[in-house]
Amino acid sequence: GGDLAIEGHIRLDRGKGFFMALVGNDDSGIKGNIFISPRVNHPGAIAQPDLEGIYLADNDIRSGIGDRPIYVLGSVIAWNKIYLERDLGIDNKDTPSELFEYSADLQFSAPQEFRRRGIIWKEVSP
């Protein structure tokens, strides 16, 4: 439970590394948030991810108020809201402030406990 503040880049060894941040409820039931610092960014063109992995919050995820883009490779899930707070300015016409790219290879590098080999069918009475 609680909040998670991400202050720096999180990069993985492609095909080998795995990272997941799960932010849930604390004992009093207050839902957790993920806050990404504006310092997690690209100074120029987007070339390599700033954050890689799976990020899940029971409440909100905030991309961080800033004027530089952020590139996330993986999955970003918030059960309440995702706030896209970056703004590259009025002159920007072709660069996204926040770029999210799904990474299918994360499911293959996940620990065995997170993977299910087959579908489990269970019949229940109506």
Low-confidence stretches are none
The tally of beta strands, per DSSP, is: 8
What's the SSE pattern? EEEEEEEEH
Helical segment count: 1
The general outline is globular
Residue-averaged pLDDT, rounded? 87
Order of the strands making up the biggest sheet? 1-3-5-7
Mind explaining what this structure looks like?
The protein has 126 residues and is mainly β. Helices cover 4% and strands 29% of the residues. The chain has one helix spanning 105-109, and strands at residues 4-6, 20-23, 34-36, 51-57, 60-62, 70-78, 81-83, 98-101. The protein has a four-stranded parallel beta sheet, with no helix packed on it. The protein is globular. The N and C termini lie far apart (36 Å).
What are the salient characteristics of this protein?
single chain, about 130 residues, mainly beta, 4-stranded parallel sheet, 1 helix, 8 strands, about 5% helix
Task: Record the SSE blueprint.
Elements: E1 4-6, E2 20-23, E3 34-36, E4 51-57, E5 60-62, E6 70-78, E7 81-83, E8 98-101, H1 105-109
Parallel strand pairs: 1-3, 2-4, 3-5, 4-6, 5-7, 6-8
Describe the structure concisely for a colleague.
With 126 residues, the protein is mainly beta. Helices cover 4% and strands 29% of the residues.
